[in-house]
Amino acid sequence: MDRNADPLIEVENVAKWFDTTQGVTDRLLGREPNPVKAVDDVSFTINEGDIMGIAGESGCGKTTLGKLLVQLHDPTHGSIKFDGQDITDMSNQEEQEFRKRVQMIFQDPFESLNPRMTVFQSVVEPLRINEMYDGYQARRERVIEVLNEVGLSPAEAYLNEFPKELSGGERQRVAIARALVVNPDFIVCDEPVSMLDVSIRAGVLNLMKELQAEYGLTYVFISHDLSLIRYMCDRTAIMYLGDVIEQGPTDDVVMDPKHPYTEALFDAVPEVDPEAERHRANVTGEVPNPRNPPSGCRFHPRCSKIIPPENWTGSQAAFRRAFQFKRQATIEEIGPEEVDADPETARELAVDQLLERELALELPEEHRGENETAHSIDVAELDLPRDAEQTLRDAANAILDEDYDGAREVLDGEFQTICEREHPDLRVAVDQITACHLYEGEERKTRVGAPSADD
Prior knowledge:
alpha/beta; 8-stranded mixed sheet; 4-stranded antiparallel sheet
């Protein structure tokens, strides 16, 4: 990593939404389009010679972002600059030059190689399309050179092989050769070893490191494998539900994560030592639907560090539980069927049962209260202010009558958080930047992109 290198990729406020037009059913019912926000308002910078990691759970938008960088998708809005040129506004000649300088290695070599083309035909195709090297013989020599460089040696033995005749590792090396044959500057690697046997992954990754030095490449590595990200990448961006929520030097992101989601992501990594004490993530719930992402910080419905209002006098843990109760009431996920007592004849008991069940969270045992199970908690054990507990009881009474509007009205007045109201800007947090309201007083990143290796 060259800290004096110039920016090669500059991504500014980029979004990619799918299903943005009305379908027939939407038009008939008069509904507005409800797009999938696969990538939403993402910014970062990659310097020449960097290896940038993009990590996150499946479905968080990593692959879509990678395809945006190589212009396999056009952004819904925002700009992507490659070597100072906006790739969404290129002439035919500029686009042809861009295609030579930028390549992508896909996740599945079983799918990315045409089964009816030989190794030679697959690797020579980019040279032919881009009109590089003069004549068959020059192109053949270039293909042989690259195949030898990626470890398929002697290359002549592989030229006439079909993908079905190769192992998984050999196929991925062919895919790497196909990307390298045009001598690119920038390669997006989308889960490049996830389909390979563990025994051969290290060899492919070491090969890619060697090729980076030889060709002067800039890489983006997309992966949910955090150990791979740490081994390969200088800098890392963490994605959640289409957002980049933390960026920084990889070692800092791994060893001292700032965003609660990043902490949870690394807590989920299995321990190699069977005797090691396991620390499990203090999160709850599932990843929301990207068609309807939460307001404010997209992680706040699952976050263990959700921020209470300034006038809150109880504990943060109690506020988290009360806020989750509010969310469940808002979407009408709880009701009188949740209790055993009859709300008509034993109202107070029914209210108690509803609160005991709905203030409990499905958490790992180490994060539960002393008398808490996955489905019940002693409300008296919570550090709830008296007026907040009364608000919860008033809301529970309304829910037992299926008066959800009334429940929402009383809950909204008591349990509010900036995490729900406002989307956090990127801000400096020691050596990283993060989109989290926990760092509300820190310097905000108002310039284009994320800090690069120079910062």
